[in-house]
Amino acid sequence: MLLNAHARAAEQAEPCRVPGIRHEVLCGQVQRALDPARPDGVKIAVHYVVAPALARRKLPDPVFLIAGGPGQSATALAASVLPLFSRLNNRRDIVFVDQRGTGRSAPLACDDTRHRHLADQTDPERQLVLLRECREQLQKLPYGDLRFFTTPIATQDLDAVRQQLGAERINLVGGSYGTRAELDYLRQFPQAVRRMVLDGVAPPDMALPASFSTDGQAAFDAMLLACERDADCTRAYPQLRSEWTAWLKRLPQNVTVQHPLSGEFESFVLTREMAVSAVRGPLYSPVLSQALPEAIHEAASGRVQALLTLGSGLSGRKNMAPAMGMHFSVVCAEDVPRLAQSTDAPGADFGAEAAHLYQRVCADWPRGELPPAFYTLPKSPAPVLLLSGGIDPATPPRHATRVAQALGPLARHVVVPQAGHGVMSLGCMPEVMQRFIDAPDDTTALAVDARCVQSTPRPPVFRPVAPGGTP
Predict the structure, then answer these.
(1) Cα-to-chain-centroid distance, residue 236
(2) Closest Cα partner for 175 from 349, 320, 359, 328?
């Protein structure tokens, strides 16, 4: 039976080239019903890429990489993340599946926003108009029924890929929203899971728009506190907290800035919501967040270019940009309906603007149905390694702590205190993951030594270089 499955997989996947990957890989697809209740209805192709194991005698359980977002394309990330799994790739296939709605799998992508005006990227009113236009365009597609892009349906697609590849059990590694997909896979297909790594845990019962504010505020406050406790930062920015507060009170204000990608100068009214949005993005990465004191100081002095440029840093990376149609199809079905039940209090600075925007967008967005069991966290029959960054503004340790308790004794939670959103690439963490997945038994896997990441320092505060060559 297994040999037959491998033969079928070989017929479906063909040798191909992926930009950024030196060696030849395999590209395949599975045909899936858009609506699982109508198997004879509209079909979509779920695409995947396999980086074959280098060894001739490979192990039978591949590693599946699950992208985040929601809305990121796994195959678009393949070239950048594959080096992290080079040792695992010696004896295991590494599989990247474009979740339905992303990449080449019935994509629900809005127009590329990276070169749009800065005000378009940060002004909630402009975002609302653009997203409504996007929804109307997506609904005209042959697969444009947006109700069928939820996580549970995508999880079933993932298992169809596993079956086509002939793998009895698989290892899953995911980040951010990808951890939610992993947890749902564990719920629906526990017998197919060998090991799981969850990096930046976003559980299914997390009301994402509400937690934006709570967790973003906590990370921002941690940045301010770190500056106050650092002699160099305090000397350079002795009034940072009060500067920030006073500047927010002066908004809105007219500004003229240069777009960081197009180079064109733009004039618009900078609002409080836009300023907070610009601050939140850099908090994902400690390296970027350490430039926030200088950017905030500059903004408080009437020069907002640095802050708005810093705030657009992550959005400029094409392979990181989510398919926004898929993003809202997931969040409008899974998160926004639970906002009323959320106990997350809005942050003092970050407020409830993000949640309000999602509520307004989702008011007109077609909403998929979810089984009640989707929001449950069953005991795990397989070892699970949960990873958290202590200053993550999106998925801090509090979420993983609760999930680890629910998953039971086979779950282990590792916190990197000074890390942001996503820790699997830090220092020795690729080796930790490799040893966790390669371990011959569950006890050895759960005992893997992860102390090497505990002392990862927070980067030093950024200081601009003066004309004379000194900060």
Answers:
(1) 33
(2) 320
Please say whether the beta carbons of 325 and 135 come within 8 A: yes
CATH number of this structure's domain 2-117+146-204+371-453: 3.40.50.1820
**Pick from 138-147, 188-197, 201-210: least confident:** 201-210
The two structure tokens encoding residue 212: 């934006």
For 98-127, give one letter per residue: b (16+ CB within 10 A) or e.
Answer: bbbbbbbbbbbbbeeeeebbbbebbbbeeb
What lies within 8 Å, CB to CB, of 280 at 6+ separation is 212, 216, 220, 311, 350, 393
Domain-wise residue ranges, the chain: 2-117+146-204+371-453
Beta bridge partners, 175, equal 199
Whether 132 and 324 have beta carbons less than 8 Å apart is answered as no
Helical (H) or strand (E) element with 97? strand 94-97
Q: Is 341 helix (H, G, I), strand (E, B) or coil?
A: helix
Structure tokens at 193: 């899971």
Please provide the distance, in angstroms rounded to a whole number, between the alpha carbons at the two ends of the chain. 66
**Is residue 138 over pLDDT 90?**
yes
User: pLDDT at residue 313 above 60?
Assistant: yes
Which residues pair with residue 413 across a beta bridge? 386
